[in-house]
Amino acid sequence: MIQHQVRTYASAETLPREEELAHKLAAVAVDPVAVTPEVEEMIVNRIIDNAAVAAASVARKPVISARLQALSHPYSPGATVFGASADTRVSPEWAAWANGVAVRELDFHDTFLAADYSHPGDNIPPILAVAQHAGRSGAELVRGIAAGYEIQVDLVRGICLHEHKIDHIAHLAPAAAGGISALLGLDVETAYQAIGQALHTSTATRQSRKGAISSWKAYAPAFGGKMAIEAVDRAMRGEGAPSPIYEGEDGFIAWLLSGKDARYTVPLPEAGEAKRAILDTYTKEHSAEYQSQALIDLARKMRSSVPNEDFSKISSIVIHTSHHTHYVIGTGANDPQKMDPHASRETLDHSIMYIFAVALEDGGWHHARSYAPERAQRPDTVALWHKVSTVEDAEWTKRYHAPDPNERAFGGRVVITLDDGTKLEDELAVADAHPAGARPFARAQYVEKFRTLAEGVIEPDEQDRFLDAAQRVGELSGEELSQLSFTVAADRLGNEGPSSRGIFVPQESLVTA
After folding, report:
1. Rounded to whole angstroms, how far apart are CA atoms 182 and 126?
2. Runs of H (alpha helix) within 31-111
3. Model confidence over 199-250: pLDDT tens digits?
4. CA 50/CA 100 separation, integer angstroms
5. Number of compact structural domains in the chain
6. What H or E segment, with its residue span, contains residue 398?
7. Which residues of the chain have pLDDT under 50?
8. Where would a tag sit more exposed on the chain, N or C end, judged by fewer CB atoms within 10 A?
């Protein structure tokens, strides 16, 4: 890996185009280095993982809305939409939109945490949509996904967005543009222009993950993927981007990040070096913010330590954890909504106080039942929930950012104090499903997750067909890439309700396909 130094340049300074970060990202993206077997293996896992969580969310209102919008844009050859029949095709940017929302809705797919946050699996919907539309092979799809993951993970390693309240899709959209460029075999110059455009059109504030969190949390990554496809299309037509997009005097670093005196270091593979970043990412066993994964496992473990499992005897629960966890999903966020029994699912997903209380009471976590209004409003749960607080612990913050993956930790230490003064203490560094955890996810666990979440949604034969195709992705022809989707019976796609009211109206035949 080469450690690239990035800073702001005054307009009068000379910055060769080849030295711009966007150009370096483009060069990495389109470098035709072979994808290693272990990277291809993990790409298969993540294609399965994305489909699993999409199956679980296919009948949820935000997903219905996005799907109906996509079905309003039929196109040939086009791309497939989760839930619709395999021969239903829509314009690729709209397929990426619908499928991106389905993948992101439950906050249940892969993650990478370093200087910033990310869900690099969000790269897959736009890259797959373009591959299906353009008739590219499975091997080309694999190359594109490997590139998208590499760019996003490397940006997340080097550039912190959240300290400036910039949403993390500002790293996703350039990554997806780079992945699409790799898929299509574009030249460095075209990829460079596409990456710059994608960044320019995808910067937004983190208010989407603050306060009363709405369904836009699921839509934001889909928007980034949609912008990436449109950016690549424009760049292929010879249209340029603002430049230098990262380093310019009025650019991204100067005005949205740490300013003209800032210095960032972004690690990138050198020419001919394999793109392996996906191997450093990890998925979720539980449908909740990643920083809650280890704490859910810890609550499950500590439950039996509470005498007679009588949680009414608990006086307080203090979670000692990292800066990120405390300020994003803990009491350090100062969001009263995080303690509100009537809060949205998206808000509860970002409340470790709620999550820990429910996981402690139930001994586990469920992607639907744990967020149900009747669950959140249960008096005993509310009472326990409001006894939970977080504090930042410098040691956990240090471990969160540790350069050594073996030292990196995303959990915390929990102190439960009972009414009689007894203290119960335990800690967990990483989730059980993490590569360094007690039960790391491998192919069997990804398949099990898909089977579990698809049960009652996707017919068993259709599950088998999808899994077979996904596990042969590198061998698939362009015509066969449509198999990387799934069909759901119309009566399982959810009640449209208000989702059907909009500017875009799909053809009836597509909705009921």
Report:
1. 13
2. 37-57, 61-71, 92-104
3. 999 999 989 877 887 899 999 999 999 999 999 999 999 999 999 999 999 9
4. 9
5. 2
6. helix 394-400
7. 513
8. N
Specify the amino acid at residue 269: P
Is the domain of 238 the same as that of 220?
yes
Q: What is the DSSP letter of 432?
A: T
User: Which residue range is the domain that position 186 belongs to?
Assistant: 2-280
Please indicate, yes or no, whether the overall pTM of this predicted structure exceeds 0.90: yes
Q: Looking at residue 345, which CATH number applies to its domain?
A: 3.30.1330.120
Pick the last residue of a domain from 226, 253, 280: 280
160, part of any domain: yes
User: What φ, ψ does residue 263 adopt, rounded to 5°?
Assistant: -130, 130
| Backbone dihedral angles phi then psi of residue 321, each to the nearest 5 degrees | -150, -170
Tell which phi-psi region holds residue 135, choosing left (phi > 0), alpha (psi between -120 and 50) or beta.
left
Do 96 and 163 fall into the same domain? yes
**Contacts for 338-343: CB closer than 8 Å, 24+ residues apart:** 339/385, 339/386, 341/376, 341/377, 341/382, 342/373, 342/376, 342/377, 343/212, 343/376
Q: 383, 412, 428 — which closes off a domain?
A: 428
Note the residue count of the chain: 513
**Residue 291, token pair as written in the block:** 């920083």
Instruction: Say if 444 falls within a structural domain.
Output: no
CA 254 from centre of chain: 27
Residue the block writes with tokens 């990138």: 268
CA distance 256 to 250: 9
Give the integer Cα–Cα distance in Å for 284 and 449: 10
Helix (H, G, I), strand (E, B) or coil at 244: coil
- Rounded to 10 degrees, what is the CA torsion of 456, 459, 462, 468? 60
